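FW: tagging you since you asked about this chain on Friday. Here's the raw sequence from the shared folder, copied in full. Didn't touch anything.
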Amino acid sequence: MTGRTEPIAGTSELGIRSAKSTRSRTQILDAAIDVLVAKGYAHASTLAIQEEAGVSRGKLLHHFPSRDDLLMAAVHHLAVVRIEELPIAIDWPDDPIDRISIGVDTGWSTFHQPYFVASMELWTAARTNARLRSALPPAEKQLGPVVRTAVASFLGPALTSAPRYGELYPILLSSMRGAAVTYLLDRRDPLEDPHLPLWKQLTAEYLLDT
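HL: got it, structure written out here
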């Protein structure tokens, strides 16, 4: 007896197949976002996504039998990945004013990512697509806690523990989202947006004033 546990036959093969399946699924999701942003909802066909992903028709349909399911899954996947990545890459300052400035800038930047453009495509299409119209609100509800956690991490525990943070959060979120929609038509530098100083002032008034 050597004390080694022998692997169960087929275990490594299952792991390899699982890893390949995960990679192909991610390829398809990334391709779906690229096609949705580049071509819009009307032209984001499964064929276009399949060609962009470089996968077979059978593999795409194995993962996502429905085009709308694929597009919604792609937006949700990319949003979660990108939003969760943002706070990790930043060296957050201790000074509360500096933290507010960088935190608001970072929150604003989340509305200028491909997943936001893609999500707007879906919301617009939902006006005349009953299936999308019923499926999008639950998907947004699932994403809500991810966004809330990310925004809290942008500002940090000292600021988000302020009594009025609960009032501030929906104001910032809805205001930034509404302002970001205008960038879909008017391409300009979001860091020069006139709302930024106002959002920072508002955040300081809500979270620092006693």
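FW: The longest helix spans residues 11-39.
HL: agreed, and The mean pLDDT is 87.
FW: great, closing this out.
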